[in-house]
Amino acid sequence: MSKRKRFGEILVEAKVVSQEVLDKALQVQKSTGKRLGQVLEDMGVVSERDTAVALARQFGFKTVQNLAKYSFPEDILKLVPSETALKLSIFPLKREGKTLYLAMVNPLDMDVIDNLSFQTGLRVAPCVTTAGEIQAAVHQHYLGGRPNEPEGQETADWWTILVVDDQELVRSAILAALKREGYNTVEAANGADGLKLACQNPPHLIISDTVMPRMDGFEMFRALQANNTTRNIPVMALSSKSAPEEEAKLLDAGYFDFIPKPINPVRLGARVRRALRVTYGPGGPPPR
Fold first, then answer.
1. What gap in Å lies between CA 216 and CA 187, rounded to an integer?
2. d(Cα 216, Cα 226) in Å, to the nearest integer?
3. At 132, which CATH number?
């Protein structure tokens, strides 16, 4: 039995997900290569915290959180390079004698545990946390803060992105990818709600589907352009039609950029960074 299947069975036994949902997620996992927990998060059926708590309860692991708020000695951080920490979703917590306490998203990954134990000569004791906690801790303790964030920047003043899409799974996947990059996110399931949110509290960037009920993406975009408050917000179009003609039509209509479905998180992240940089310049968000 694979480690991924075992992890899924843990979630079913803990009543975090149903067997039907697990079976669907396993099929997606096979085709995408993503870890099972990430697939379930993208589907919107569990949160990072749900999976962490389920693992901790099932196997008696300790859970850890708020890693970015604590300080860690330099000699502990050197045990795991930042690239490795981000790639494997691990973070070194402390050393006691010959034991290294390690925060992990998947404490059942014996390959990671065995390799790190071999490299450091220490016994690895896993503790459970979330991918978001790991990313925040790495950016804080290895990279000196959130990506591109000016020192002392408050979360409320950070980049805010509005995602508008009537398909819940697509919307959840985009939100998860943006949150992993450290962005604040707001969501709407149709153009009418998206327009209302954008006018009430203008975001720095809008990512919108073009085909939606009540008010489609084109109607919302025209309304945004007609409003002095929202006219200058860059809008990136989402479409399942990936033909060059569709892209040209959207760009000619005035959209800042075009992203085809299905969403590729790497492409999405690069396009978002470019949109914010081109629109607002280098550095953090402008004052509101």
1. 15
2. 16
3. 3.30.300.160
